[in-house]
Amino acid sequence: MKRACLVVGLCLSLASPVLADGAADARTYFEVGAKAYKVGEYTNAIQAFEEAYRRSNRPGLLFSIAQAHRMEYFARNDPARLRDAVRYYQTYLAAEPKGKRAAE
User: How many whole angstroms separate alpha carbon 52 and alpha carbon 39?
Assistant: First the structure.
């Protein structure tokens, strides 16, 4: 049931017209992604985090995307997800070499 509600929520947020500014929209997508991540819906989390990044260009979101790809790798044993995780971690480090999560 939680999964269905999450997917419906994500679809509704993707389909709704843009009413708020980019930062508010980005925050909404981040929150949807965080909820998806928390319940193990890593593919949905990736999509929401990517949309949040497109709307805000905040480098910290690159780390969140990388984390979701890494967890999807562990969930599905899909080497492509691990390659994507590494690529996003590298992009994050290039954008924020001294960022909060750089040491991780």
Answer: 19
pTM for this entry: 0.80
With tokens 């993707």, the residue in question is: 14
Q: Which two tokens stand for residue 24?
A: 């508010």
Give 18 or 32, the one with higher predicted confidence: 32
Instruction: Give the mean model confidence (pLDDT) for residues 34-43.
Output: 98
Cα–Cα distance for residue pair 27/52, rounded to 1 Å: 7
| Residue labelled with tokens 């009413």 | 19
* Cα dihedral across residues 16, 46, 43, 36: positive or negative: negative
Closest CA to 71 of 42, 95, 28: 42
